[in-house]
Amino acid sequence: MNRDPKLIGHSLALITILMWGMTFISTKLLLETISPVEILFLRFAIGFIALCLLAPIAFKRVVIKHEWYFAAAGLCGVTLYFLLENIALTYTLASHVGVIVSIVPFFTAILAHFLLDGEKLNLQFFVGFAIALAGIFLISFNGNYNLKLNPLGDLLAIAAAVVWAVYSVLTKKISQFPYSTVQATRKMFFYGLIFMLPVLAIYGFKPQWGQLVEPLPLFHLIFLGLGASALCFVTWNSAVKMLGAVKTSVYIYMVPVVTVIASAIMLKENITPAVGIGTLLALAGLLLSEGKFTRGKKKEAKQQL
């Protein structure tokens, strides 16, 4: 039976977002035990070990040009993005960060338009982006529109969004290399962990191991390491390979939606009318954005005629 690669790509992107949307809860609970930097390092260290076990065979030969791409992807997607986002949270409200980071598809689209083949834009993308962003605004602020802008925190959040957009473009480039997705992701994790070492030296690394091995913290740490890191980066990178950088990135609109639903179930938080309307708008924006790229299909159809 033939499987549609695009259908598989959409499924992988959706699975990734469902898990990434729940990482906020696990991280929030783990922050009672260890610091953000310690969470970041441990989750990717666990993910790296898991990927090494899953794909223990090293690359047959090292291509220096490819290594630069892997290093850049590890720096952007593993180290810088999460550090910038976590630091931004110390200066500005989480709701601000949630809205700002959700503009990732916009930056990804701009970069991909100029740097990648077959990732051209049209008006439908920008309309879908505006609708989704309005929905995410409603979800994040939950009817409370007290903005209280903090220039430093908000700029750091914007920087995080730009960095993830760069990672998305790099991932698409890497998908063209002759390596499996698991091998490529493992290599990105390796460089990401290397770039984290100076940060650990500055902030320190003294996790409370006794508390971490307790059932609840251990479960959330394993979820972040095996699920949200090892599995999700592989599924996300696979989706980028199948769908393209921008088509995959629009699924980020769904992260706050998943977080709200998961919080309502697990943390007993209420879903207000503003959040309900925001969810519908985010879904509408995503669906509209998913139809934005023809990738030359119309031209190909005309040529076949």
Question: What does it look like?
Answer:
- The protein has 305 residues and is mainly α.
- It is built from 15 helices and no strands.
- The longest helix is centred in the C-terminal third of the chain and has 29 residues, at 215-243.
- The protein starts with a helix and ends with a helix.
- The model is unreliable at 292-305 (pLDDT under 50).
Q: In percent, how helical is the residue content?
A: over 70%
Low-confidence stretches: 292-305
Q: How is the biggest beta sheet arranged?
A: none
What's the domain count?
1
**How many β strands by DSSP?**
0
Distance between the termini: 28 Å
Give the mean pLDDT.
83
Report the total helices: 15
What integer value in Å does the Rg equal? 19 Å
Overall morphology:
globular
Order of helices and strands: HHHHHHHHHHHHHHH
Structural class comes to mainly alpha
Strand content: under 5%
Protein name: EamA family transporter
Membrane topology: Multi-pass membrane protein
Subcellular location: Endomembrane system
Pfam family, one: EamA
